[in-house]
Amino acid sequence: KGSGMADAAAAQTGTTIVRGACHHDCPDTCAWEVTVEGGRAVRLRGAVDHPFTAGELCPKVNRYLDRVYHPDRILRPLRRVPGPRGGEPRFEPVSWDDAIAEVASRLTAAIDRHGPETVLPYSFAGTQGLIQMGVMSQRFFDALGATRVHRHLCGVTAWLGAADVHGIPLGMDPEDLRHSRTILLWGTNTLVTNRHLWPTIEAARADGAVVVVVDPVRTTTAERVDHHVQLRPGTDVALVLGMLHVIDRDGLVDRAFLDDHTTGSDELLADARRVDLDATAATTGIDVATIEWLAPTFATRRPAAVRVLVGLEHRQHGQEAHRALAMLPAVTGAWRERGGGLCRSTQQYFDQVLVDPVPRRTGTVRPRVVNMAALGEVLTDPDLDPPITVLIVHNCNPATITPDQNPVLAGLARDDLFTVVMEQAMTDTARHADLVLPATTQVEHLDLMNAWGHMYLSLNRPAIAPVGEALPNTEVFRRLAVAMGLDAPGLADDDETMVRQLLDSDHPWLDGIDLERLDAEGWVRLNVPDGFIPPMDGATATADGRLALGPLEYRPGDETPDGDARLVARYPLGLLTRKQHVRFLNSHYGGFADHLPAEGEPRLDVHPDDADPRGIADGDRVRVFNDRGSVELRAAVVDRVQPGLVTMPFGWWSTTTSDGRGANVLTNPRPGRNIGSAAFHDTLVQVEPVGPSS
Ligand SMILES: Nc1nc2c(c(=O)[nH]1)N[C@H]1C(S)=C(S)[C@@H](COP(=O)(O)OP(=O)(O)OC[C@H]3O[C@@H](n4cnc5c(=O)[nH]c(N)nc54)[C@H](O)[C@@H]3O)O[C@H]1N2
Ligand SMILES: Nc1nc2c(c(=O)[nH]1)N[C@H]1C(S)=C(S)[C@@H](COP(=O)(O)OP(=O)(O)OC[C@H]3O[C@@H](n4cnc5c(=O)[nH]c(N)nc54)[C@H](O)[C@@H]3O)O[C@H]1N2
Ligand code: SF4
Ligand SMILES: [Mo]
């Protein structure tokens, strides 16, 4: 595929086509082709031969080259001109040599004074490419002995819940949803967040599949399927228990599957038997008739699958919700058929086989660990010993995307914190930096791309030379390692070497997949056998090789409408800050003028039953607040949200909102420093009008 043709085309026209793949934190990892003329990328389009993404990108990425060549792109290292932080920053260009020397000397001085744990590396999934995201930075910060960060903003709670049941939670191949006759899209907005799965779902539907969305909001996806189960937020465990009650009562339990492949079903079914369906209906807001339909449909209209991503993990009891959904298909034996079972992130497949051979620090030399959700707390904790005095950010925009934004901004404004941000754009985080280092984009660097929405591994070849003086993250860490005289293993490896190291595996899923093959073909499916069904094929990784079922109980999150009564009295409305943008990807594009008009402005969706008593009309400016903070924006009075629930988008930059604040001023940073993803959606607020529309 490709390279031969591309060479021929190049010979004729001076044009080359370079294969790559999208770097965004999106399940789809689209394969793309970049057309390069005279060293400039002139066209980016989806690779038509990719089985899953099939030539289509998305409204975010169709214009990605505009971002690559954007006039606001950071093209040189920048040093802050002394002045107060948090206001309008001023920067002056410096050379790379000076920038690297300055970072190295500040790191050395801070470590001499406080020890290496004074350094906090903060990074996430700005690119999901394995090399630029983590391999080299992890080696570098491990060599320093820096504080470790649980990169837990996304996906970990979902993983933990499924792992409670499966050990290592390998789910279905999403392409096997093609064979399903019942698909429950449970807390995932497929059309917006996972759009390349939609053709598979439509194909199954054309063959008679019933598709159900379980979501507290009438999302774009909910509007396009057969049934929308609009449950009260955070009550998923209660709904699963209600379904299990009906399944047990009506003799739809797959006893043989439970006996052969699980433990703990007696405890689970005992809890299900105790359920009173009227109480379930009151808790979930779903009437008994719907539960009486949903349960047997899932149990008997087969193959039947539950599809989840992260929508329901972002809660205090998100792990329990994911555990419940992992147990449901076991009780009905849904795993018996191809097209049945639990369909979740495929990341686990890649994590099994793509392993950095450079060992990490272990035992007594293992540094302390903090959860990235607790950034604000960690940066502002006066008793933290040693304190964080150096913050190095890459692939991440914590000023915008981290929960409980006010302490984060207070921390970033500390005069005694030396902050380095590796970025492409002048984000709210970069605006707080002492040094901003220009980062390459995906069309300028090499990377190996795994995926969490399908089974294809892709190679991203750089199509053009770095724009301006931008450097890949890997190169910055290599230069820093030299400047600091570090000689730990792997710190001098170039990018291609690291790609080869990851691919150098004995695992059968990687058999025959190497750099040469990826280069020639662009993408390759992992050698997971066609029709692989993890629990049936002996791939359940619990201690006894069985799915671990057990007791299940619904508990409301403290910060939900059924939670802490004193809090609810002051802040009676639940707040969701989900991914609803078509032209944003998390905080990417949140400051890009070309993407803003299509997204309009951030709005608070509020139900008429909540708007009317507060005197709020459609288009009015409102203040949304809780003990953590306050945001002003316009209200949209709509019935796609349910009474008691308001929603607003996250990802807008402070420069684009009227009061310089975004949704994360309000959100719940739980579990704080502990393990797990942030409980963004367990957030209670009050809303009041600010003034008439203007
Ligand atoms: N309220 C609320 N907050 C949320 C969520 C929510 O649902 N609600 N979702 C959470 C979730 S699930 C996630 S995954 C996080 C996402 O949080 P982030 O990973 O921080 O989000 P992004 O905006 O995708 O990327 C951050 C930055 O990475 C930069 N970047 C991209 N590629 C590169 C590169 O190659 N090198 C360098 N140095 N930088 C690069 C981009 O310019 C961008 O500014 O947000 C979380 N925050
Ligand atoms: N266009 C676009 N696509 C994206 C992103 C983006 O920013 N923009 N971000 C990417 C990233 S980082 C991620 S992690 C994925 C996330 O992909 P998804 O998990 O699909 O997206 P979310 O918007 O986080 O949540 C999905 C749904 O969960 C619902 N939900 C919230 N609470 C509950 C609950 O208690 N129960 C149930 N049943 N549902 C609930 C929300 O209403 C929302 O509609 O999307 C990726 N794709
Ligand atoms: S953001 Fe997602 S859908 Fe859009 S091009 Fe990238 S991988 Fe594909
Ligand atoms: Mo995410």
What's this entry about, in short?
The protein is α/β, with parallel strands linked by helices.
Would you kindly provide a written description of the structure presented here, covering whatever features stand out?
The chain has 694 residues and is an alpha/beta fold. It is built from 23 helices and 27 strands. Strand 12 (304-307), helix 13 and strand 13 form a beta-alpha-beta unit. Helix 8 packs antiparallel against helix 11 (277-284). The protein binds ligand MGD (2 copies), iron/sulfur cluster and molybdenum atom. Iron/sulfur cluster binds next to loops.
Labels describing this entry:
694 residues; six-stranded mixed β-sheet; binds iron/sulfur cluster; 23 helices; alpha/beta; binds ligand MGD; disordered N terminus; single chain; binds molybdenum atom
